[in-house]
Model the fold of this input.
Amino acid sequence: MGFGSQRAGVRAGYVLEFVYTSKVYFRFSFIPSWVAWTFSVS
Done:
């Protein structure tokens, strides 16, 4: 395993972690905003 492929694997891990955390963060931030929007409309 060369140094280049190792860096590529680390980069892929960072991307996967960023996608997962952003997905979780979007889910937890989307629900309160949707609830607040529903209460403000009604």
Summary: The radius of gyration is 18 Å. The chain has one helix and no strands.
